[in-house]
Amino acid sequence: MATAAAAGISLSSPIRTVPVAKAELLGRKPVRIGQMLPLQRMAATAGRGRVVVVKGTQSSTPPDISEKVEESIKKAEEACAGDAVSGECAAAWDEVEELSAAASHAREALKANSDPLENYCKDNPEADECRTYDN
Amino acid sequence: MASCTIHTAPYSCSISRPAAKAFSLGFHQRHQQLIFFGSGRRSAVVCSAEKTVVIGLAADSGCGKSTFMRRLTSVFGGAAEPPRGGNPDSNTLISDTTTVICLDDYHSLDRTGRKEKGVTALDPRANDFDLMYEQVKAIKDGVAVEKPIYNHVTGLLDPPELIKPPKILVIEGLHPMYDSRVRDLLDFSIYLDISNEVKFAWKIQRDMAERGHSLESIKASIEARKPDFDAYIDPQKQYADAVIEVLPTQLIPDDDEGKVLRVRLIMKEGVKRFAPIYLFDEGSTISWIPCGRKLTCSYPGIKFFYGPETYFSNEVSVVEMDGKFDRLDELIYVESHLSNLSTKFYGEVTQQMLKHSDFPGSNNGTGLFQTIVGLKIRDLYEQIVAERAAASAAAAKV
């Protein structure tokens, strides 16, 4: 890497341009990885038979964990309606926190495995498709 | 990895039996495998000439999958993965040299139990410190243990998994330094101290997309846990060898997004095998803004501070960074001015940060200081290995 290029490299958002040929193979137009819509990711991973629930947000939690979080919030609000400083109230909100953390881990795990290009580039950063540019 | 060679003191093998005192037998020959069945836990004797190095990390953010852990294991080389073929909800991470265990696995009460008793997971009553001490001590002595698994999804305690003694064991969770016996087993301890404003901002980012959550529920959740957190978790920071304190930035007035952060690395003085990093002149007080003629930074810029301080009546050195990195050359510039980094080559910190540029905190002090602490731990580990090699060479001569 030339030092001139190295000096200008951005740390925050690597831009990858997917060569057109490969992109067409994957059935999508060349777009920035980070801005790919969930629908496009789903198309890309459809062949693997993974079911990705898309809720219209960028990152989606598996539905069962999502339900658990919702339930626990309702329960916590009920528990605290009576006595806001009781142990039960604290325990209930602690459960909400625990489940929210589990939900966020599940989201990350889903994100980490859902993009075949990212997975390929993790192992082969020097491949043509994985070169990063900063302009 | 464990091997037995003929040694005199101080190397010995011990058998870990649940609820029994460990005793030294002084095996000098090859491996002996003894399996005891008792109270549902099995332990094996492994003859190991090397004691595992144990690092403690106190953090509130869940277990084993945190960014700090991933950076730390990456410094040692190799990626840390959950154990193959075991419980998919295991919290443990294993790489070539490092095993990270989650202290939530030592909950004595599962989620239902805690709800009945009205205690949070932060409360010491919900954790089995005796088992924690017993098992960490066993691993440190080179004995594999069957460690329980706490399943964060179901909230139940799952059947145990086997943990073999690694070269480096990291115990991560809410109470690594709470129990004094466990504290004494730690070769190095770190406390990740996130201030309330930053915690709130991060939790909003994490949870707002979640159906069911609202600003009020997030706030209520933090408030409800605060009393237990302040009573049981926060006091551990006085015992830590290094504290990474994350505060809101002072460079942007009224910033509430938590994107630009002020991060302080508080390093205890006089800790064995740990030389605090410093800026320019050790022991003096320095205020440094690297942006200027040689380096151009974008808004809001970067500000550094270094100086000696007192922290909970301990002598400490503090290096503080406020702002964020936008470009590679800013990072390398900063790295070239810090001293005592324990890097193996010029630019190692920058290289590690680049390797994980997708991790949160890669463009501010959290990533920088976590990486540096990782290098310091590597240095500590290598010092221990060198000391043992010297000791065994001396013993062999005798």
UniProtKB/TrEMBL annotation, chain A:
Keyword Mitochondrion carried by entry: no
Occurrences of domain CP12 (ranges): 65-135
Short name of one Pfam family: CP12
Region (Disordered): 113-135
One annotated GO biological process: negative regulation of reductive pentose-phosphate cycle
Disulfide bonds listed in the record: C80-C89, C121-C130
Residue ranges, compositional bias (Basic and acidic residues): 120-135
UniProt xrefs under InterPro entries: CP12-like, CP12_dom
GO cellular component: chloroplast
Keywords of this entry: Disulfide bond
Domain of life: Eukaryota
Stretches that traverse the bilayer: none
Name listed for the protein in its UniProt record: CP12 domain-containing protein
Lineage: Eukaryota, Viridiplantae, Streptophyta, Embryophyta, Tracheophyta
From TrEMBL, chain B:
PROSITE patterns per record: PHOSPHORIBULOKINASE
Keyword tags: ATP-binding, Calvin cycle, Chloroplast, Disulfide bond, Kinase, Nucleotide-binding, Photosynthesis, Plastid, Transferase, Transit peptide
Ranges where the Phosphoribulokinase/uridine kinase domain occurs: 54-252
InterPro entries linked to this entry: PRK, PRK/URK
MF (Gene Ontology): ATP binding; phosphoribulokinase activity; protein homodimerization activity
E.C. no: 2.7.1.19
Catalytic activity: D-ribulose 5-phosphate + ATP = D-ribulose 1,5-bisphosphate + ADP + H(+)
Pathway(s): Carbohydrate biosynthesis; Calvin cycle
Name assigned to this protein: Phosphoribulokinase, chloroplastic
Keyword Acyltransferase part of the UniProt annotation: no
Cellular location(s): Plastid, Chloroplast
GO cellular component: chloroplast
One GO BP annotation of this record: reductive pentose-phosphate cycle
Pfam families in the record: PRK
UniProt family annotation: Belongs to the phosphoribulokinase family.
The protein's enzyme class: transferase
